[in-house]
Amino acid sequence: MYDTVHVLATNQKRRSCKDLAMLIFFASIVHRLLLERTELGTLCESNPARSKLLFDLLLRHVQTSLINKKQVSHMKSCEIDQEDEYEFNYFGYDSDDEEQYEERTHAIAVYPLFSMVNHSCIPNVAPIHLLDGRCAFVASRPIAAGEQLFDVYGFATMEFDRSFRLLCLEQCYNFKCRCAVCESFSYVSVRNMNQEEEKFLRALSDSMQVEKHLPKLIEYMNEVGRRYPKHQYTAAEVMLVRSLRIIHSYSLEDDVENEFGYFGVPARTNS
Ligand SMILES: [Zn+2]
C-alpha cells in the first residue's frame, strides 16, 4: 500500500538548497545507521550501486512523507473558561454552552488514497478520522458528477488572505496555488454570511446535540449549496465538518488516562 505514496512527487527540484541539504543530511544519518547496524550493511558492502540505491530511496521517503503525512486528530470535549469562550466560538457570537470541543492530534499517518486528493482553498471534501484508525472523506458541499474532489492543505480562505495562503502553500508544499479562489482574487470572510445563514447557524449552535442538528444542516447545505459562489467557503461547511468530527470522536468515557497523565488510545466503538 505504501508504494502508492512512495512514487508520488518529491518536489526535489523545487526545494531550496537549505531545505534539500537538511533532508540529505537526515537521510545520510539513517543510511549510515542502516549500513552499520542491520544486515543491509553486508548486502551493500561490496556493491556501491546498491548502497546508492538505498540512499536514494531514503531521500525519496523523507521527501514524500513530508508532503503526504497527515495529522490524525479527534475532537475532544472540554470545559472552557467563560472569559475564553469568545475565542473558541468560530462564528463570532456568544453561546451559553459551557462544553466545547477542541481538535487534538493523536498521531501522524500516511493515507494513500488521501494523498491522491489535490488542494483547493475552497475544498469540497474533508477528512474525518475514525476511531478504528481509518480515514473517511465526507462531502462538505454538493459535488456534481465528474467534479474533481479537493481537500484543503491547511490554509483555507476562512482564516487567511490570498497572499498569506500562497506563501504558506509554496513554503510547505512547493506549489503555487491556482484554485478558483486564488485565481479570481476573491475572498469572502465567514463573518460576511447573509442574515438567513447567520440565523440558521445561530439556532444550530444553541444545541450541543450534534446528532440532532446534523440532518438539518445537511438539508440546508443541499438546498442552498448550488447557489453558493464557487469561490465562497461558508460557515455552514465548517460547521458540517466539525459536527461530523464530533460525532466520530471519542467521548469522555473513552478516555484512558495513563500513569503519566496523558490520554491513551481511544477505545473502539460499535458505531
Ligand atoms: Zn488557492
From TrEMBL:
Gene3D superfamilies: SET domain. One of its GO terms (molecular function) is N-methyltransferase activity. Pfam families: SET. It comes from the Eukaryota. SUPFAM superfamilies: SET domain. Residues 3-154 form the SET domain. This is SET domain-containing protein.
